Amino acid sequence: MKKFAILFSIIIVLGINCIGQINVNQNRMSETAEIILPPIDLQKIQQEDIIRDQHKDIPYRYGIAFNMNNDLIALGSWSKEGDDSVMNITISSVAAHSLELKFNQFYLPEGSSLFFKAPNGQLLRNVVLSAENRKDNRFSSGLLLNSQIIIEMRVPISANTNPKLELTKVIYGYRSITNTNKVGDCYIDINCPEGVNWQIEKKAVARILLGSGQYCTGTLVNNTRNDGRKYFLTANHCWEASTDVENWDFYFNYESTACDGITPYVGAVSGSVLRAKNVASDFCLVEITGNIPSTAKPVFAGWDHSGTPRDSSVVIHHPAGSRKKISKDYGLLTSSSWSGCPVGSHWNIGNYELASTEGGSSGAGLFDKNHKIIGQLHGGSALCGNNLSDDYGKFSISWNYGSSIATRLQEWLDPINSGVTTLDRWSPDTSYVSNDAQIFEIISPTNGYCSSQINNPKVVIRNLGNTTLTSAVIACRINNGTPQIINWIGSLSRNQRDTVVFNLLNPSPGTQQIIAYIQSSNLTDLVHYNDTSRINATVTDGQLIHLDIKGRKYYESEISWNIKKSGVTLYSGSGYTTPSPYIQLRILQDFCLEGGCYTFSIIDNNCGGTTPGYYWLINTATGDTIGRGCQSGTNTTLNFCVDIAITPIFEQVLPICQGESIPQLASISTNGIAGIWTPAINNQETTQYTFTPNTGQGNVSNATMTIEVMQTPTTPIVTNIDNVLHSSASTGNQWYNQLGSIINATNQDYTATSNGNYYVIVTLLGCSSDSSNTTNIVITNINDFNVSNQFKVFPTIVTTFVALEANITEENCSFEITNSIGQLLIKGNFNKSTIVNVEGLATGVYMVKIKNNTSVGTIKIYKGSH
Prior knowledge:
Oligomer: single chain
Distance between the termini: 68 Å
Radius of gyration: 37 Å
Shape: flat
């Protein structure tokens, strides 16, 4: 058994290039052992950051990595305290904001403990125990917020194994990473009201310290086994910045306790292994090897690899490594690319309606409105203060674009090969889902069917909560039509599902949206984003034609057939093989044929025999048999027609304001029908227009389109009573003065607080009136409101009450208190004096106007906080 009693200590002074290998020189002896990091060229580094910070495809840098090769067991100062051998060694730097220590050989014997302390003895992180030994013998200290770190190791003298503590890297943090770290002023904490619907998904998001002095963001993602494998999605360019993923640190729940609140300490989860990556969509999937504490209540985010564009999205991220933020975009995502990546490999956000992103946000998951991951942040120019765009690598490209398991997500996230397109989130903490009824999917209609088909929408409901779902009111509708309602009764435990079948729906030809949603249930539903599901169904205006072919035994390869229109082959089949073991070949296929005439041909040179073949061609819409039979050795040809009137299809013209120009109506429909519109365009009133097709185009019907012309609001009239301006319009007002529109001045009344010309414009349903009459305001001030004049107002800096007094002979006085934009907040009447409670007003400047029968005047007061 080895006893630890090292009899000397040393000071080690390091003189190195910050990107090279540190050489240890024993320059002098001392009572303590100390490793001193050399100073960095901060000015040069800051100049580099000016350029680096403009690129989100380069991870945000906060520190400089020093490569090390130090066995701290050998270099440390050892002593004996009671039953323990105690080692101390200090890591010092010049004015670093933080230090982070990486060990490639780390082992604590059972009963040992490791402390990271500041010079004043304060613990800089939780005590490390032998339970944190890793199979790969690595360890990371996480961020230690001090420029000098005292490492203390305590090993029981009775330990029968030796400790290991080989320091291989130190990250010198030259940028502040404390709670006061300032990023763009547009960012919103995840625990502000804007993040209220994302309190579950936020638990999947973590800040990454890459082991290279750089930050990224990433997200835990679920897999189809729902087994809690710690798969973590981030950006490939984060991996390129620091390929040693075993040294990555993950910080879950690094966030404020409330909106703009404090940020408590959270420990790092250290270590991961690379599973897959691909530059095409800039994704990187690692599996975290460290233990995520149950107190973190981790959530594994759901995903969607359908590649369907979404009309809103959310990003939860750590800009510049700061505490967790939320950003939102309400626009439709569009396909984009990134330099060197395939066309259409990315989603583009044109600009964010709420907050933005910056360096450190790299790799953050892009959530769709269904709270599922559809991509991760690659790069872009968006920052606080601009309306520029960002690009996110598509989850749908990451799914199976690569050529191997190491270059795609599919095998990792669908290990059971289920083939599902979407997957819900999962968490071992079931408290997240105590009550949650869900529309899981709409499984019928499929995306493309005939208008002649009978369609009964099938909707799958699922219980994601712990409370049994026993009843629900479920609705289904087409676009904005009248919904059908079903009162479902059953019994579904957590994760169980049931299918609800609705009555026949008859959507019009074209692309229609089928919408199913839960109106209510026996649960007090806590999660509402999954109460609704939508699919787009493309409806062809045609008749369903059914083809049924039975092949003659052993001669199936000689069958061929086709359906043509005007000589063009629309459908065909040939090259059939004899089934093995033999089952007589059966070909069943349906076609939705639009109005017009067609030719069906079939060849079967061996139609007769003991096991004959045959064909049937049936119009399922009418029930008519178009043709059937078995004519050996012949080419059977049938001509038949589908008698459906073709309706011309046009894009609807949006409503206009009265007098605006109406776009020229197309003379050829989107489905190729030519004709003319009547009557003439009228931009003064709502009119229905009729499209009459030209002759010679077959059985084509007329089409109609109504273009709504919204009336221009009546020009308002402004009246003035004692500088209170009144609009004759009750709604839609916007007040203006000679400087332009007055912010937040949208009420029917506006109190003028300064001289000038005022008018109002009314806007209703997007249409604006002419300007009202202009009113000139001249305000007579009561100088100073001191006791020698008519009135007094005191104090002028208030917190709760303000006193108003008039000359002892004055009665029938009135007062008004308005804010800086003229909105009337408090008013009243008084005789001689009164006390006004202003405690409810926000901190700021207000105008107090007092008047009686002969005088009027105003004075500013400042409302302070308590």
